[in-house]
């Protein structure tokens, strides 16, 4: 019953020679021989015929598993409860149009726009600039579409500085929309996989360039750039007013020392000081974990004090250097500024070659010097080069002057020898100063050189460029007193001589009168 086709294994079919074309066999065993030579097509137990070159299957079973094909009409696969699974272990194991969509089964990756994805999801597209939000397509490489209104685009820039963008917007109104990251846990990390606060930003070995910076740039009418830190009681849905003394917000700086992070080594903080209805607040600036500057609710600034009572108040420290305007050397003396010693306000310059000067404005471009105190202690009024302890260019109005004259503070006391002779030898003059800054009025006085020739103690030499000579007019009164006493002595002597002459004259007159009376009588 039937035609029995010769049955051979693959080894026998492979070793046959001089095989007539159209020879038919049934290969019942493929564990022998190899899939080479005439048995190159023998890969299963089946009927084969010889085509003159190799054994070929009698019936070809063409399908998606062993041959390419063309889908001629639409097809629907109804799975029901049955799975449709693909297994593979190579790259690009499932694809659409090559790289439009690709599955990398070897590395568990999915590629869109690439046949060789490098990440779990690798989306490749042309880098462009983000388009204006709207209902149409954008140039983003990836879009998460929320339906009619919302969309979230991801893309990369085609032009410098390149980089990438995330764009959340309302497709209908083209308005910006919120972008919320991890709202359940409530933390976001940039540059870190372990954020410890609401927003943690880490720059890991980025050098000292802009990779560590935060940049906020505003253009056009985007003015009044601000970083806003808000604080309220209650909850987001039911906020409440703050109570006094509650921290509003701050900037904290934390160095890592001794194997750990030190919080608040430096900080800027704002504290609410109102009653829940007003806007009173103060600011604290801290370094080395201590408050250094406080600006209170009234605008008073305290440096080293928590309770400033004026616009600027320093802490109650008593030190040589309290305010330094300029420092020559880092010590308590070589600086320009102010200090406090006990009950003394210290006004300091750095050396005896430096001066204290006071000015008054003449307008927008010049000022006039009013007074100068040299580092040597000389005081000049109307002069920047005082040669004496008090050097005044101009008149002095005083209700009196006092010179210390107590015998207890004097030594080498001898009688003054200058007097009337020296006074009579002085020439009095009228004059004007050549330098009108010293005065324009006509004055009375002496020539210092002439005074020096007679009474050298009354003449002083200034420590200026021309060694100007000056006369101590006050001490001339001593010489005048001596001259007056000498003159008085002379007057007294003359008065005595006149009195003696008067007596003699009276006696002579009496004698003459008596003689005349005698002659007349006789």
Describe the structure.
The strands form 11 sheets. This protein has a 6-stranded mixed sheet with strand order 16-19-20-21-22-23, with no helix packed on it. The protein has a 4-stranded mixed sheet with strand order 1-2-3-4. It has helices at 10-15, 420-425, 448-454, 473-521; strands at residues 7-9, 24-29, 46-50, 55-57, 94-96, 101-104, 109-112, 121-123, 142-145, 150-156, 164-170, 188-190, 199-201, 233-234, 239-240, 247-253, 256-257, 260-261, 266-272, 281-287, 290-295, 301-303, 312-314, 323-327, 335-341, 344-348, 356-361, 367-373, 379-381, 390-392, 429-431, 443-445, 459-461, 469-471. The mean pLDDT is 87. It has 4 helices and 34 strands. Helices cover 13% and strands 28% of the residues. By secondary structure, the protein is of the alpha+beta class.
N/C terminus separation: 236 Å
Beta-strand portion reads 25-35%
Largest sheet: 6 strands, mixed
pLDDT averaged residue by residue: 87
Number of H- or I-type helical stretches: 4
- CA-atom Rg in angstroms: 58 Å
User: Which runs of at least 5 residues are low in confidence (pLDDT < 50)?
Assistant: none
Q: What general form does the structure show?
A: rod-shaped
Strand ordering within the main sheet = 16-19-20-21-22-23
**Overall SS class:** alpha+beta
Helix content: 10-25%
Total strand segments: 34
Offer a few descriptive terms.
522 residues; alpha+beta; 6-stranded mixed β-sheet; 4-stranded mixed β-sheet; 4 helices; 13% helix
